[in-house]
Specification:
Length: 269
């Protein structure tokens, strides 16, 4: 999914409040999805519950129809990194499933992703989820005024590669605002001090896509689904954040997701 143009838009506090409220709706939609995740459920059922929740709360699913995408969520299982299309595929014990969604309301988008476990997942894969989650927050720590995009990229890459994981290069984070995909691109790999300078009011989606094996990916014949070349599992977490002077502010939320996971005694990264 490509970005709209090359202009970096700085957001006012009023615009940020809209995005923050949309992030709340999105976080609660994710929580509705989390309630359903268990063996035997179809990915299409997960997509429907998110669609219904977002519409019931006055929003539009950001992904539905975007560049022709046919669903409200990207739902990516196991070796699928991103852009999986919901279907009648049934979740099975031992699966991991990345759920990526967006909410558009009052002229602005919010965007976030979370990777869930289904039943009993082996420890090697649980560790991948844990460290991918941590890499997201390592990147967010660098999203402050005066740094550059490359500082975020380097933080994610250097953390993930300590565990010998693959860092996907073909897909990147991005600016968020009136368009779901704005400038700048935010890669998960790079050098400190490179890239656009971060300014107060820049809103970006940081989204590590990390693999258990090699970093290479391929696109399936459906034109959307991106999976790992070596068919090993991949994890994906994403927050929409605003650059601030001292510390980035996270505009989306995992709070409601993790309350559900805790209530079900499920894995929380």
């Amino acid at each position: 999914m490509s970005k709209k143009d090359n202009i970096i838009y700085l957001k006012s506090e009023e615009e940020l409040e809209i995005i923050r409220k949309n992030g709340e709706i999105l976080g609660k939609a994710h929580a509705e999805v989390a309630k359903l995740i268990e063996p035997g459920v179809t990915t299409k059922a997960l997509d429907k519950v998110a669609f219904d929740y977002i519409k019931d709360n006055g929003g539009e699913p950001s992904f539905l129809g975007l560049y022709g995408f046919p669903a409200s969520l990207c739902i990516s299982l196991n070796d699928v990194v991103v852009h999986g299309i919901p279907s009648n595929r049934v979740l099975k014990d031992g699966d991991i499933v990345s759920v990526d969604g967006g909410v558009f309301k009052n002229g602005y988008h919010a965007d976030s992703a979370y990777t869930y476990t289904v039943g009993e997942v082996n420890n090697e894969v649980l560790e991948l989820l844990k460290q991918t989650y941590q890499s997201l927050f390592k990147g967010i720590e660098q999203a402050r005024t005066g740094n550059r995009v490359g500082d975020i990229s380097f933080a994610v890459q250097s953390y993930a590669e300590k565990f010998r994981y693959g860092v996907v290069r073909e897909l990147v984070g991005h600016g968020v605002g009136r368009h779901l995909h704005e400038s700048p691109e935010v890669p998960n790999f790079g050098k400190r001090g490179n890239g656009p300078r971060l300014q107060e009011g820049m809103v970006i989606a940081i989204e590590p896509m990390i693999t258990l094996g090699r970093r290479g990916v391929v696109q399936e014949n459906d034109g959307w689904t991106i999976r790992t070349e070596d068919r090993k599992q991949a994890a994906h977490y994403e927050h929409t954040v605003v650059v601030r002077k001292g510390k980035a502010e996270i505009l989306t939320t995992f709070q409601y997701i993790e309350e559900v996971l805790k209530s079900k005694n499920l894995f929380i990264a």
